[in-house]
Amino acid sequence: MSGTPRFLTLADVAEVLNTSSAQVYALVRRGDLPAIKIGGRGQWRVESAQLEEFIQRMYAETRTFVDEHPYVEAEPRPE
């Protein structure tokens, strides 16, 4: 087996994405980031492969956004 665990906690995912566990929970509950509930307490786990797919999808969506909304430098103010 590799050194990377197959499943990550929401806290682990939050650390990878440099965001809060609450934000990751919202991504999971909205269905943006696939996850499973395990155990009697229903703890969430995100598969490492799903996290990588999510990251790649976000890169693609960001590229599309940037292409559709190009950054325009502000005109210099006349003196």
TrEMBL record:
Domain of life assignment: Bacteria
Domain Helix-turn-helix: 7-57
NCBIfam families from the UniProt entry: excise (TIGR01764)
Protein name from the UniProt record: Helix-turn-helix domain-containing protein
